[in-house]
Design goal:
2 copies of one chain form a homodimer.
Chain A lengths: L10 H20 L4 H8 L3 H9 L6 H11 L8 H17 L15
The first copy, chain A, binds a DNA duplex through helix 3.
Chain lengths: 111, 111
DNA sequence: ATTATATGGGCTATTTATAATCCAAATCGG
DNA sequence: CCGATTTGGATTATAAATAGCCCATATAAT
């Protein structure tokens, strides 16, 4: 039985997922890595590599990101120092933001 | 009991995960959305939103990407048409690549 | 063509994530 | 300060992912 769709995904997140999956697969092949070799390096099973390269939404994001990192796919188009910079910058901004949110009035969206 | 570390993650993928988590949390607060409201919109539980904003590697990537999309966090710094373009470009490239990989000789890496 | 092997897919057992609670503490608006 | 509510964290039952097999097919190198 093919599992029939449990959740709904926006086309945006579905495309992002597919794109990441394709980039990983392409990078793996270009680096001449076997699915098994990649699985071993990532510490996961070959079957999971297959699901990752298929863009399965149910895969653990940690496994996907780790796999991407191994084959050299850059998330956020950024290297580590750049990401670290963004992290601390975001931390600073987050510190200034309210710690809990009150939906003022009835409006939930701004546009 | 705090679950003791099962897997190892590279610092790169851990940072990428944290960064995405922070961007989501920041975007949610800036949009004045309650964790419950965001959970409802994403079709997931509030507890999962908390783990997503904590950068938990075990979260399903579909749930994370969907949540990001809802609060307006752009994956790959790209809008939908841009991603679609990358998708088809990648498809074309993949078609030219070998369909299966043979580790030539003993070398697994190229550098 | 032949041979070795990579890939795709299915299957089951086990681990893990997720939902749905509930509670205590923190936070914000009045 | 007070009251309402958001948030964080724990717990438990359920659902789902993952690992580890297996087999058939496709692919690539010789």
């Amino acid at each position: 039985m093919t599992k029939l769709e449990t959740r709904a995904y926006s086309s945006y997140s579905r495309d992002a997922l597919k794109l990441l999956a394709q980039m990983i697969r392409r990078a793996r092949i270009e680096r001449k890595l076997t699915t098994q070799e990649l699985a071993d390096r990532a510490g996961i099973s070959r079957g999971l590599i297959q699901r990752i390269e298929r863009g399965d939404p149910g895969c653990a994001i940690g496994a996907v990101f780790e796999t991407a990192a191994i084959v050299g796919v850059r998330l956020f188009d950024a290297d580590q120092p750049t990401m670290a910079a963004h992290l601390s910058a975001n931390n600073a901004t987050l510190a200034l933001l309210p710690k809990s949110v009150r939906p003022s009035g009835k409006v939930k969206d701004d546009f």
